[in-house]
Structure formats: C-alpha cells, structure tokens
Write a structure and sequence with these properties.
The strands form two sheets. Strands 2, 4, 5, 6, 9, 10 and 11 form a seven-stranded mixed sheet that branches. A four-stranded antiparallel sheet has the order 1-3-8-7, with no helix packed on it. The chain has no helices and eleven strands. The protein is mostly beta strands and 114 residues long. The chain is 0% helix and 49% strand.
C-alpha cells in the first residue's frame, strides 16, 4: 500500500509564492509518473501538472503555465509544486496523485487572499 502525504498548504496573499510537497511511502516512487490536482469549493477536481518518473518532462494546465513548477526528488521520495504569482482563484485543496493504481493523498489546503 502506497501512502501519499501532502504538506505545506497555508494562507498566502495574492501575488505571493508557496511550495507544497508530497512524500510517498515505499521504494518505487521513482518508477512512476506523478501529478498534482486541485479542487476548489463547489467545483470538480481538476488537473494541475504532471511529471515523468525521471523528471525529464512536465505538463501543465493552461491556467498555471508560467506560474507553477512541478518537480521531484526521487532520493527523498518527494514531489513538489512551486506556486508563484498566486491568485485568489488558485484557492483549493491540492492533491498529490500517482496515476498507476490511482493513488491519492489526503490533500493540503492552499488559500490565497485578495
């Protein structure tokens, strides 16, 4: 059983920056594509970004391109999301996701005040 544990979410002002993290249990983290999704109140969960197993390729939703950066440290079994130029509409619970076998973390709340 794989566990994904997100952390780092907090209240920030618009225009600010924040980095959230996701630590994965187990020894196979480096084998898998990983991603971030988010869910705002009253809305569907939506894709934010993905990164390949080696970190060599990334993909982003249009609404975060140029502002967010996904990265990973396969030695630390950790996935990151660096978020810059935050907007109030970025307010959501952010979830770490492993596509294979569809594992999800419990989420971390990011709130951006205007």
């Amino acid at each position: 059983q794989v566990q994904l544990v997100e952390s780092g979410g907090k209240l920030v002002q618009a225009g600010g920056s924040l980095r959230i993290s996701c630590v994965a249990s187990g020894r196979t983290f480096s084998n898998y594509v990983m991603g971030w999704f988010r869910q705002a109140p009253g809305k569907e969960r939506e894709f934010v970004a993905t990164i390949t197993s080696t970190g060599g390729s990334t993909n982003y939703a249009d609404f975060v391109k140029g502002r967010f950066t996904i990265s990973r440290d396969n030695v630390k079994n950790t996935l990151y999301l660096q978020m810059n130029s935050l907007k109030p509409e970025d307010t959501a619970v952010y979830y770490c996701h492993r596509r294979i076998l569809n594992y999800w973390g419990q989420g971390t709340q990011v709130t951006v005040s205007s």
